[in-house]
Each structure stands twice: as C-alpha cells, then as structure tokens.
Amino acid sequence: MSVKAEQINENTKWQDLTEGLQIFEPATSKLFSTGEWRTETPVWNKEKCRQCLLCVPYCPDSCIVVKEDRRQEFDYDHCKGCGICAKACPFGAIEMEQPSH
Amino acid sequence: MSTRTRMSGNEAVAHAIKQINPDVMPAFPITPSTEIPQFVATMIANGEIDTEFIPVESEHSAMSAAIGASAAGARAITATSSCGMALMWEVLYVAASSRLPIVMALVNRGLTGPLNINAEHSDSMGARDSGWIQIYAENNQEVYDNFLQAHRIAEHQDVHLPVMICQDGFITSHAVQNITLWDDEPIRRFVGEYEPEHYLLKENETMAVGPYAVAPYCMEAKKAQAEAMKRARKVILDVAEEFEQITGQHYGFFEGYRLEDAEYAVVAIGSVCGTVKDAVDALRERGVKAGLLKIRVFRPFPGQEIGEALKHCRAIAIMDRSESYSSQGGPLGAEVTAALYRAKAAAETVNIMYGLSGRDVRVEDMEQVYEQLRKLADGQVSFAEYPYLGLRDGTNDCLSR
Amino acid sequence: MEQQAFNFREIQARPERLAPGHRMCAGCGGTIAVRNVLKALHPGDKAVVGNATGCLEVSTYMYPYTAYEDSYVHSAFENAGATLSGVETAYRVLKKKGKITSDYKFITFGGDGGTYDIGLQSLSGAMERGHDMVYVCYDNGAYMNTGTQRSSATPMYADTTTTPSGTVSQGKPQARKDLAGILAAHNIPYVGQTTFIGNMKDLYVKAERAIYTPGAAFLNILAPCPRGWKYDTPDIMDICKTAVETCYWPLFEVIDGKWSLSYQPKNKLPLEEFLKKQGRFKHLFKPENEYLIEAFQREVDRRWEELLERCEG
C-alpha cells in the first residue's frame, strides 16, 4: 500500500516517503493552496456575466471550473490573482478587487 | 541442461539478452560494445526475440529512453562503453534515484583523454557513486552469468536499482573463449517475468516520476536509496545461490583464489585476474604463499567481507585500472585500504596502477609484483607514492618509483 | 485522424487535466499552453505527459504535488524527446505482448531552452525516429527558470540577463532560430505554430491534430512570460494578438510537408505594436535606437515573406 500525498509532509520520516519520490495518484497539487499568493482578487459579477466562458481557457491556474455548461465561482484556494480573466471578459463581469489596507 | 561452445564476451552478453528477451533496448554504437546492439538488432530482424530496439542518436538519449521505458513498465536494457557512458552520466543518477531497474552491459574502455579504445575501468569507476550496482567479470562465462542474474537483482522489491554488468573491452568482449551456455527454459524460469508494482501505463493508476524535490525531502530520499543499496547485498547473494542451483556456477561478492593461507595477496577486478591466477599458481609451485582476491561486486562494496578475507596477509597489492588523479592512488585502492583499516589489518599495502588504456599485463609482471610484496613485508622496499606497473621510466623495475 | 468539430463550450466543460496548485507564476503563459493542449485530448483518452526540466517541471511536480491528472515523467533538461520516446516504445511492446490493454497518447512539454537549445538533439532524434508522440514547445523566448538568460528563441534586441542592454550593447544581437522550420525539415507528418488568440480555436485545432496524427508531431506555442518580458500579467491577450498581427509570430501548419498559413492579418501592424508593451524592448524606444526597430522590422518582413512563399509553393 503506497503512501498518499496528503500523508507526506516535511516531517515525514525517510522510511515513509514514496520509493524514488514517485506519486501514485493524480493531481495532488490541489492539496497545495496557491490562493495565499494573491494580492488582487477577481470578483465575478453574475449579473453582468453572459456565460460566454472566454475567461476559462485563459486562466493559468485552472481556477474557473465549468459545470453543466456554466462557469462556477472562482477557486479562491488556488487563484493567484493574475487578472488575465478580468481583461479577457468582454462584458466587464470580472473586476479585480484591490487589497484592503 | 547446457551447451559447451566458444564465443566472445559480447556474443555471450547478446546470448543472455536473447534468453531474457527484454522489452526495450535503446543503444548507440561505441567501440568495443558496438557488437551487442548489432547482435540484438539482428536477432530482432530474424524474429528470434520481440524486443523493441530504439536506434537513438546518442548515449544520453539511450539512457533517457531506457528511463522512460522502464518507468512505463518495460524491462529496459542498454549497452555502452567509455565516452558513451560518460555522456549518460547525468541520467545514470536519475535512473538510480528514480529506482528504475535498468540493466546495462558495460564494456569497460578508458575515457578519452587522450582518445583510446582499449580496456580500462575509468568509465565505470567514475560512475561508482551514481547509485548503480556494479558487477564485474573476469571472462566471458562470468559476464554471461552475471548478465543473467542482473534483472533478478535490479527488480527485487528490496532493491529497485539499476545494474551495470561490466567486462573488459577487447580482452573479454572480443576474445573468443570456451563457454557453457545454459538451456533456455531453466534460464527463462530463473529470470522470470517483469511485473512491477507501479508503472506509468498501469491500468487504473497514474504515476508521476521525476519530481523536483526540495531540501526537506531530498536527503531522506537519498537515505532510502542508500539503504536499498545495502539491501542489495543479500539479494545479490540469494540470486547467486539460486543461479548456482541451476548451473552449478558459484558466485559471491568476490572470489578468493588460494587466499586462505596467502601471505601476499593481490586485489584486482576483471580480466587481469586470469593472469594473476597463473602467477599465483607458478609462485605456489615455488613455495611462495601467493593469493588473489578478485572483486566481482564493487557496488555495493563488500568492505567488511574484504577486510576479513585479507586481514591475515602480510602484504597486499591493490590493483587499479583507473587513474583518479587524486595523487593518492585509484578508487579500488581507496576503498580496500579503508576496509583493511576497519578490519584492523596489519598488512602492508601498495596501490598499483596497471593496464591503463589497454597496457598489457603479463604473468611475469605479476610474479614481480608478488616479489615486491615480499620485500614490502620484509621492510626491504617502501612505496612513498602509488606505483605504475609496466611503465617506461628508464629503469628496469617493474614498478615505478 | 479522428479530428472533431471545434465546439468551444463542450471543450471548456471537459475535465481539467492540469490541476491547480502548481507553483508557476501568476499569469504564466506556459500553463495556459499546457492546459489547452491537454484539453485537446478527447475525453476518456489516456495520456502520458512528459516534461523537460524547466519552470514547468519544477512547478508542476514539486514532491509530493503533481499537477497532472495523467501519468507523468520527467528525467532531465535536454532529454524530454528521448525520455518520452522510451515510454512510447514501451507502450508498443507491452501492448504487443498483451501486458496492457488501454490506448495512450504521448505528449511532452519543453520550454525553448529545453527545446531550441539543450534538447534539440534529443528532440530531433525522437522526431526522426517517428515515435507516435507530440513534442510541445512552450516558447517564452529565454531561459526563464534560471532568470531570463537568452536562448536561440529570444527575439533580436531583447534585453535578457545574458544579453543585457547597456551603454554599448542593445540586447541580443542575433535573430531567433526558426525551430518550426527545422522540425518541418524532419519531414514529420505534423508541425504547427500557434499562440493564444481569441477563443483558442487555433491552438485547440492544432493540438488536436498533433495528438491524433499518427507519428511524430511538433507544436510550437508562443507562451508569454510576464517576468521575463516585463509586462503586466493581464496584458497577455494583447501581447499574443500583436505578435500575430505584426507577423512576428505567424500561425501556420506543415502537414505532410505542405505548408499552410492559418491566419493572414488584414492589416499587418508595425512591429512596434508588439514591442512597446514589453519592458525587454524598452531600450529600443530611445530616439537614437530607432534604427534597431527598423532592422528588426526588416527581419520580421523577410521571414514573413519567406513563410508566404513556403505556403504558396
């Protein structure tokens, strides 16, 4: 039985790491929150959004998930706040919120 | 059960490959190992094996493709020599750290500087810290038998490390000698099918190979790899024992030749050992207690066993066929001397550089080495530096000063 | 070839094959390339993904976090082509021996460092041998993983950390290598060049064709790097658009040796439109450096004309 990625951390003993540092499950990066990197935050205006989905392929972080033909709320656990989606939107339905001081 | 015939060391390896029928063999030609991929390609062309040969554009790509094939779940092998292996250097470490049981037929040849195509151990000795198991042969029979055992060692779940099966360029690879070939069926049963637990193409499981490992993980991974190398010791002996049951051939970490009561011992690797044995026999006729320790397994290094086997000797010559330009001697000298120290041996030692770039070594040369060992033990000579054997230095001494 | 009609909405709804949580920079063009190429795999089709060492590799498989939904292999910088060729060969032999049953596609990604430069030999070998695989170069025009050193993909006069613009130097003196042309000269069945335009149809169609063409395929994708190119991350669409509209980065395909232009700008924009948004070309806009932009424009024009000839011929 192989160790799962979620059981591995910087305190794991050498005996308990996976052999050859291989991982035997997909997409374990989801366990790592890159949302903490964000300074500006995209805010989705559902009223203005026409569900054209043009923002979706431009997200470098796969943070705009489509379900049943409609985009969902941003994955804020992983969104790094690059702002590409806001500029990609033809309808002004995404605004970048500045950090509050 | 077996066939007596004659063939070269390269043919012997090719015959082992035919019996193993590995899945993938990427290789690039380089003297003196070129014949091996040629033989394999011919066997494929004639439908004798169903291995896929990848005619890569370099040795770096040969090892890279072997890594890909092995990770994908295939039994992968390659063959190379000298600069070809040097070009692989970077990825040798990757194969080992990724714990991929690749098997390489290495036909030892000196690394360029200057360009030379003859036997020397500078290629494999330079890779001694790459994490590969290294097994050496004195003759074609041994390289054949070693190759047949390699997959069993590499693929053992306690090991999962790559193995290089070494033989001396031309001296072993091209010289035709008598050999006993084992029948296909018992060998196929012995080698077995390769059934890895994890691989890229496994149904219902994905696998990610070759991460970027940050400091909190990397040292732990290296420790795990080092432990696998230690566990390989038992596996090598177990596999040898099983091989002996089928073939009657005995293999261990090393061979002691008239060593038990020897006062003067030579430690060597590879084809020179045949010459040393002749010298030992001649000296024993004359009442000189000469002996040989022929190292078969250099990685993992059986230091404790070597120390124990040698500690009763009065004087020991450790023969290196690879300059390390350390000003202290060669790699075998360093390792064996350390083993003797740990065994609290009182023997005098001298580390001798011999056979570089294919320089011939004769029985008379080795007899003179034993004579020097006697003088060393008796305090009649001393060696401030590590001498060369058979060097033209303007004297008639066999060993340079 | 099993080419399907381009259905933008259906494609966006496909399961993501590059997971979030990777450590690429905010706004990275490389991951946009990877995501969209992998979306061109038909749903349900399996793949093995490879990488050359580079930003992408150290960010998408930092132990124990893999960003890939598929099996993944990386071994070194200069050998992505050879490594995946070994995987593809293993696949064929294991299939032949009945040890595996599923079908797989093989796609490897390298940056321009790993592709144009250090990995060119390995790429050339893998393509020449005709392995059924796709090599994708995400071309951001410099060695970004080590901090924006010039590569043979770097555009002329770009300021990089090894071709810095200084008092007596004006950035990289040489023009970029025509890698797609080199790959086309391998006579492989598919070569494509694309970038991020509009709804990504161009990229999708080319990626799908590359993946589903039997044999070796190569795809070159201009993938802007906000750090190295020195632009604001949201501007990526403008940058790609002007790269295409100025003909700096033409969109084309070479299918079975036949060159074809994918897009011809109605009004070819002056090169400044592409250059002016990027800090790496800032020094070119000093009045005394006007001649450099002219020289760069001549180079772009020459290569555009050459491409048109290839496509007409």
Characterize the structure shown.
The complex is a heterotrimer of chains A (101), B (401) and C (313). Helices cover 9% and strands 12% of the residues of chain A. Chain A is low in regular secondary structure and 101 residues long. Chain A folds into 2 domains: 1-32, no CATH class; 34-101, Alpha-Beta Plaits. Chain A is elongated and about 55 Å long. Chain A starts with 40 loop residues before the first strand and ends with a strand. Chain B has helices spanning 9-20, 35-45, 59-71, 82-97, 122-126, 140-154, 184-191, 215-247, 272-285, 303-310, 331-342, 363-377; strands spanning 2-7, 24-26, 52-54, 77-80, 103-108, 133-136, 163-168, 177-182, 208-209, 254-257, 264-269, 290-295, 297-299, 315-320, 348-353. The longest helix of chain B is centred in the middle third of the chain and has 33 residues, at 215-247. The termini of chain B are far apart. In chain B, 58% of the residues are buried. The model of chain B has no long low-confidence stretch (mean pLDDT 98). Chain C is α/β, with parallel strands linked by helices and 313 residues long. Chain C has a single domain (12-312), classed as Rossmann fold, CATH 3.40.50.970. Chain C has helices spanning 8-12, 29-39, 55-60, 80-96, 112-117, 120-129, 179-184, 201-212, 226-229, 236-245, 272-275, 290-312; strands spanning 46-51, 61-62, 65-66, 71-74, 104-111, 134-139, 190-194, 217-222, 252-255, 258-261. Chain C has an 8-stranded mixed β-sheet with strand order 4-1-5-6-8-7-9-10, sandwiched between helices. Chain C has a two-stranded antiparallel sheet with strand order 2-3. Classes of the chains: A little secondary structure (101), B alpha/beta (401), C alpha/beta (313). Chains B and C meet through helix 3, helix 4 and strand 9 of B and strand 1, helix 3, strand 2, strand 4 and helix 4 of C.
